[in-house]
Design goal:
globular, alpha/beta, nine-stranded mixed beta sheet, Dihydrodipicolinate Reductase, domain 2, 9 helices
Length: 330
């Protein structure tokens, strides 16, 4: 089996704590290089990967002939530029979400992907987790009857972290861009549905959306259903998604997005007569699963489970929410 040699652009905290370690742990992958000019930040990565090669610039890493794929955890507003640069440098590329700030920006990435024949994807990890795969199996098997409503919530409070890129307008911050990808994308992944109409009520601080309450109607293969979600960077930690049909409920929680970090990953099927089936997945790491799926697509040519076309659809829904939003003014 060919080992995919990975490089990481930038010494982001998330890369250090999660994705770089996932690459290091994944079967068929090698965490081979890091691009950073900060020696102290490089040492934190070398602590768990002593053989790591350090490049002083992103350009130098992209020019390294020993690197097959790159992971990009840069601030949101830099994603499109460096994803395209990586493809043009001959690298497969996995870029943090959101891969773009508007849906039309993804078209240029798709075009470059198709031109080069390389794999480009957004680091949208939850479809790789077995809790979501089990939930989707139940839904498609008709376990809850006809889907009528989806409800999602994802929140945390980083108000004190004023320098965080999520709290800055110039770096593409905002709760929808950071975590709406999950609340919107999980609904679309489960149902295959697309939005018909989307409205939102948002609250801003310093030009950045920090709270969004979204209401939508989606059209799926089995008909229309309603959707509601709350995302916020100013509320206590909460994660939950429910799919409500006329014969039952699927609940993915209380760690649908930060599986086995926020809480143990589990999915519940609620049936009439107060019957509940619970499946738990305490050992699965969706970041590792994501890296391994990415490698299989490169080596074996199998379709990547979450292609850019899917990502674009989620971004369309996010754009609709922003475009149709009413500012709460408080």
């Amino acid at each position: 089996m060919k080992t995919i040699r990975w490089g990481v652009l930038g010494a982001a905290k998330f890369a250090r704590e999660h994705m770089a370690r996932a690459i290091h742990a994944a079967e068929g992958a090698e965490f081979a290089a890091l691009a950073t000019s900060d020696a102290a930040k490089a040492e934190a990565f070398q602590a768990f990967c002593p053989s790591l090669k350090i490049h002083a610039s992103y350009e130098a890493l992209l020019a390294d002939p020993g690197i097959d794929a790159v992971y990009i955890p840069l601030p949101n507003h830099m994603h499109v530029e460096w994803t395209i640069k990586a493809l043009r440098a001959g690298k497969h590329v996995l870029t943090e979400k959101p891969i773009a700030l508007r849906a039309e920006e993804i078209d240029g990435i798709i075009a470059e992907r198709d031109r080069t024949g390389l794999l480009a994807a957004e680091a949208y990890m939850i479809p790789h987790h077995p809790q979501w795969q089990r939930a989707r199996e139940w839904l498609l098997a008709g376990e809850i009857g006809t889907l009528r409503h989806v409800d999602a919530a994802f929140s945390f409070n980083n108000e004190a972290d004023t320098l965080n890129i999520r709290n800055r307008a110039d770096t593409g911050g905002g709760s929808l861009r950071d975590i709406g990808v999950y609340t919107f994308g999980s609904c679309r992944f489960m149902t295959g549905a697309e939005p018909v109409e989307v409205t939102a009520r948002i609250r801003r601080e310093n030009g950045v959306e920090v709270f969004a309450q979204v209401a939508a109607t989606l059209q799926g293969p089995t008909g229309k259903f309603t959707y509601g979600s709350t995302t916020s960077m100013r509320l206590a930690n909460r994660q939950e998604v429910t799919f409500q049909g006329d014969k039952g409920i699927i609940r993915v929680g209380s760690a649908p997005f930060n599986a086995n970090l926020h809480d143990v990953a589990e999915v519940e099927l609620h049936k009439p007569g107060q019957r509940v089936i619970t499946d738990r997945f305490p050992a699965d790491n969706h970041y590792v699963h994501q890296v391994q799926a990415f490698g299989r697509s490169i080596r074996e040519g199998v379709p990547y489970p979450v292609p850019l076309e899917f990502v674009r659809g989620t971004q369309v829904m996010m754009d609709m929410a922003y475009d149709n939003a009413v500012d709460l003014g408080f």
